[in-house]
Amino acid sequence: MDKVISPWSVPVAVDDIPDSGMHVEIDAPAEIRAQVLAVVEGLSTVREILKLSGVFDLTRRGARVHVEGHVRAKVGQTCVVTLEPVDSDIDETVDLMFAPSHAEAARAGEEIDVTLDRDPPEPLTGGTVDFGALATEFLVLGIDPYPRKKDVEFAPVTIGEEGPTPFAALEALKKRLGGGQT
Q1: Is residue 1 part of a domain?
Q2: Helices (H), 18-66
Q3: Burial of 32 by CB count in 10 Å (0-12 exposed, 13-18 middle, 19+ buried)?
Q4: pTM, rounded to two decimals
Q5: Which of 2, 32, 76, 135 could join 54 via S-S bond, C-beta 3.0 to 4.6 A?
């Protein structure tokens, strides 16, 4: 997953996660949502972020951290058909494994075997998982790039025998100026 530069940081140190696991809930206040909007505006049709939150359950597996949960948001967008405001609800499922790099694991005296992983783990840098950055990334992934108001469909304009042809204005001008044969 490409990293999104996030102004929202909610780090949790791996060493602070008990063996029984940890539950983390985050909710972005208005000033953080405004900062996140500045990041996602250039990537999408988002006009405003009305709500942004995440709920995560963490479990340690040796040096690895398994994160499951949801990122939920409500964003204000512009309908691509009517150009009217439309609110979009986002609910993205999170199911990721984080692991330290091989160099960090070696310094800690642990070995990480990724040969059995179907998906390589996300990098665990500095011994922390940043849930603000994670929520921002999943927000970006969940944004509809072509939002539409409910029950609105795009109907292309067709020019057929009932209407004028694209060259009708040129034909009329040619006749008015006494132009040649058509």
Answers
A1: no
A2: 30-40
A3: buried
A4: 0.75
A5: 135
Residue 171 resides in a domain: no
Look at 171 and 142; give whichever has higher pLDDT.
142
Tokens 């063996």 correspond to 19
Domain that holds residue 28: 11-156
Query: In angstroms, how far is the first alpha carbon of the chain from the final one?
Result: 60
Mean pLDDT check: name the lowest of 20-24, 39-43, 133-137. Answer: 39-43
Number of domains composing the chain: 1
Give the residue with greater pLDDT, 15 vs 5: 15
Q: Which residues of 122-148 are buried (b: 16+ CB within 10 A; e: fewer)?
A: bebeebbbbbbbbbbbbbbebbbeebb
CB proximity list for 19: less than 8 A, separation 6 or greater: 60
Query: By C-alpha distance, which of 148, 138, 116, 162 is closest to 68?
Result: 138
- pLDDT, position 1: 45
Q: Is the dihedral of CA 39, 44, 50, 54 positive or negative?
A: negative
Mean pLDDT over the full length of the chain: 84
Question: What is the chain's length?
Answer: 182
Task: Tell me, yes or no, whether 4 lies in a domain.
Answer: no
Dump the DSSP string for 68-130: EEEEEEEEEEE-TTT--EEEEEEEEEEEEEEEE-HHHHHHTT-----TT-SSPPEEE-TTEEE
